[in-house]
Amino acid sequence: MKPRITITTGPTGFLEILVNEAGRDLLVKELQGLSETRDHFHLDPEEFEVDVPTQSIPYRDGDVVHAYGKVLFRPDAWDAEHFPHVLAPKDP
Predict the structure, then answer these.
(1) How far is CA 6 from the centre of its chain?
(2) Which of 41, 63, 74, 86 pairs as cysteine with 58 (C-beta 3.0–4.6 A)?
(3) What pLDDT score does 92 carry?
(4) What are the pLDDT digits (tens) for 27-69?
């Protein structure tokens, strides 16, 4: 079966990533392949034949489907140099 990955925001604003077995395996493979030399992959509708294909059919009425996205690998050393504010502890 082909990968099925659907990214939605429901009426409450909660982000969900819904996957079948092949979609899960593809996401895990792509995530594990990230490194400092291959620092991102794209999520796009399946007709574009990119890294990770997404589906555009919502699971529920009221869901907003996100067909496009990008996953970026940001090692702590990179963030410490370029975006140190993301490493700072949150104020209680």
Answers:
(1) 10
(2) 63
(3) 65
(4) 999 999 999 999 999 999 988 878 899 999 999 999 999 999 9
Length of the chain: 92
Q: What is the DSSP secondary structure assignment for residue 85, as one 8-state letter?
A: G
Going by C-beta distance under 8 Å and a sequence separation of 6 or more, which residues neighbour residue 42?
50, 51, 52, 68, 69, 70
User: Please, which residues bridge with residue 72 across strands?
Assistant: 40
Q: Which residues pair with 9 in a beta bridge?
A: 15, 64
- List Cβ neighbours of 47 (8 Å cut-off, separation of 6 or more): none
pTM: 0.85
d(CA 32, CA 2): 20
